Known about the structure:
Strand 1 (5-8), helix 1 (16-26) and strand 2 form a beta-alpha-beta unit. The longest helix is centred in the last third of the chain and has 25 residues, at 76-100. The protein has helices at 16-26, 46-64, 76-100, and strands spanning 5-8, 28-31. The chain has a two-stranded parallel ribbon. The protein is globular, with a radius of gyration of 18 Å. The protein has two domains: 1-35, no CATH class; 43-108. The protein has three helices and two strands. By secondary structure, it is mostly helical.
Amino acid sequence: MFSNCELIGDKGCISVDYQSDLFNQSQIKLSVPHRKNQQVRTELSKVKQRKRKRIETLFSQLKGQFSMNTNFAKTFGGLAARILAKITALTMIQYLNLFVFNRNINNI
């Protein structure tokens, strides 16, 4: 497992108890963006914001254009094959965009 690292979460991972348990058990620091109504505000750095945006874009693409949230698999092997095929297709598209077509990696 992971230890001595930092994770960037979303606004749903804001529980102080959860963050402290994660740090105490595995020395994992959880960075989350602040909510509008939060009293103690901690800002994410620009680098972390860009990384988080890229991950959110990727999840959105997997969900929307690859229908990742729809599951018709009957077995775990079928589900694993379906997920692997979709991630492989997305990775291939990103590779082609970046190295063959000289386009933005996010164009699908």
